[in-house]
Design goal:
The structure is a single chain. The chain has 176 residues and is of the alpha+beta class. The protein has 5 helices and 8 strands. It has one domain: Gcn5-related N-acetyltransferase (GNAT) (Aminopeptidase), CATH 3.40.630. The chain has an 8-stranded mixed sheet, sandwiched between helices. Helix 1 packs across helix 3. The relative contact order is 0.17.
């Protein structure tokens, strides 16, 4: 299924494109504070962001990966990204997200998360979801809790490069 455009009260969620590379690199993938707890490492150059976006564009027609850019309706600014990826080992989709630092603490990540989960439930028919946060990432914990995720247990994860290791809190969301 082609990744659809989604809409919430304040946000338009749309597939990302290579045309977004400069803005994304400048505003969040190069920001060490945004990348601090992410599985991806801080992008050192625009080329890192372009390589990631090529994967996103390639997956626009995937039934196992849905990724969106988050656009603030009021201003048209692309301020973050997120998505759901199917995890075979968990037999469910994992929710992930990140946004520009200047928009932290405004409820936008929770709003985008709700739109992505609503799509997964109402369009894909999914009933179970996974999410995790680094132990020290309290902001992400708040988002998961507001979305209805329930703590399941502790684990850990490592960044793609293998340079960052995190103890994590793991959560599941079960839709009745």
């Amino acid at each position: 299924m082609v990744t659809p455009v989604l809409e919430s009260e304040r946000i338009l969620l749309r597939p990302l494109s290579l045309d977004d590379a400069n803005h994304i690199f400048k505003n969040w993938t190069s920001d060490p504070d945004v990348a601090k707890f992410m599985i991806w490492d801080t992008h050192k150059s625009i080329d890192d962001t372009i390589e990631w976006l090529k994967i996103e564009v390639e997956n626009i027609n995937s039934n196992y990966h849905y990724g969106w850019g988050f656009v603030l309706k009021e201003t048209g600014e692309l301020f973050g990204s997120g998505g759901i990826n199917f995890k075979d080992e968990l037999d469910c989709y994992e929710l992930g997200y990140n946004i520009m630092k200047k928009y932290w603490g405004q409820g936008l990540t929770t709003e985008a998360g709700k739109a992505m989960l609503d799509f997964a439930v109402n369009t894909l028919g999914e009933k179970r979801f996974f999410c995790r946060h680094a132990v020290d990432n309290i902001g992400s914990k708040k988002v998961m809790t507001k979305l209805g995720f329930e703590y399941f247990g502790d684990s850990s994860y490592t960044s793609f490069s293998g340079e960052k290791h995190f103890l994590s809190k793991d959560y599941f969301l079960n839709i009745k």
